[in-house]
Amino acid sequence: MSGQPATAGKVALTGADRCRAAGCQHDAVTARPYDQAELRRVFGAFPTGVTAIAALVGGAPAGIAASSFTSVSLDPPIVSICVAHTSTTWPALRAAARLGISVLGAHQEQHSRALSGRGGDRFAAVQWRATSEGAVVLDGASAWLDCSIERQIPAGDHDIVLLRVHALDADAAVPPLVFHASQFRRLGV
Ligand SMILES: Cc1cc2nc3c(=O)[nH]c(=O)nc-3n(C[C@H](O)[C@H](O)[C@H](O)COP(=O)(O)O)c2cc1C
Question: Does domain 48-182 bear CATH number 2.30.110.10?
Answer without folding.
Answer: yes
